[in-house]
Amino acid sequence: MSQIMLEIDDLKTYFRGEEGTVKAVDGVTITVGKGETVGVVGESGCGKSVTSLSTMRLLHDTPGKIVGGTIKFEGKNLLELSEKEMRQLRGNDMAMIFQEPMSSLNPVYKIGKQLEEVIRLHMKYNKKQARNHAVSMLKMVGLPRAEEIINEYPFQLSGGMRQRVMIAMAMACNPKLLIADEPTTALDVTIQAQILDLMRKLRDERDTAIMLITHDLGVVAEMCDRVVVMYAGKVVEETDVETLFTEPQHPYTKGLIGSIPKLGENAAKLESIPGNVPTPANMPKGCKFAPRCKSVMDICWEKDPELLKTDTNHTCRCWLYQDNDIENKEDLLEVSE
Question: Are 286 and 301 in contact (CB under 8 A)?
Fold first, then answer.
């Protein structure tokens, strides 16, 4: 791997509420190298967004708290920095595209003011330079009549247009690390392709490290070098993108890939994973995927497997790949294929 830009090690982020402690992120480890795109995938509620908010240290107005682990950016532990030092990094060296553009943009300030504030703070441009740069960024993300939109309020724009404003804001200062949380969710396919091209260009020209959080495996296949699969607050599999699609190991990953419609396939209905993601407040004992798994064994109900290396560039959290004395293990491996 190239120089490591982001290193998340054994991150634990818990929320405390009336029902007790909720382990939203429970021992997550992710690394992103310079110029590398790492995809983080999984169903809603698996801890992807909480991982990204923890990385940016944006949980201070929530019941959530980072209770363990380290988050290093260019070798510096972000959990040891003051809020003032974090503000210097956010928007400049580290930027984030948020999932909800309406709640992320200030409704009482015009688009131009919000964009220019970021540009002037971090790039030291004067007012005119900042305005020109803001207009050019809006044009880059495919917004028509950028000179007019810059004088409008967020409520005057559609959801997709607001999302593109957020993307322009995140990319405005050419960050070293870009965290993109579902960046193309509200966009049509043509704009989605344009935004992915922009992110790819930023990565290729400036060696930007990208952590791409998404549920769209098509985007993962197109954009990512490596993929981290999360389930119930934990990493269950990690490998390079080609191996993930050709040789997935965890039953959950196989279920996700199996649910993708395939060109030319005449299937009566798509495959699906039975059941639902367990709520963080009511996690099952043992393997968190056991209630939904086709290959479940007795040990799965009792113990949670470790995340272990199963190949040179492959890790998996599953009893099928643990070194143990389970009977009929080879038969179960065939069933899960």
Answer: yes
pLDDT tens digits, one per residue of 301-326: 999 999 999 888 999 999 998 865 44
Q: In sequence order, what are the residues at sequence separation of 6 or more whose Cβ sits closer than 8 angstroms to the Cβ of residue 81? A: 57, 89
- 101-104 long-range contacts (CB < 8 A, ≥24 apart) are 101/154, 101/159, 101/162, 101/163, 101/165, 101/166, 101/186, 102/154, 102/159, 102/162, 104/166
Which amino acid, 192?
A: Q
Q: How far apart are CA 48 and CA 282, in angstroms?
A: 18
pLDDT tier at 54, thresholds 50, 70, 90? very high
How many of the other CB atoms lie within 10 Å of CB of 298? 10
For tokens 């994973």, the residue is 273
pTM of the predicted model as reported, rounded to 2 decimal places: 0.88
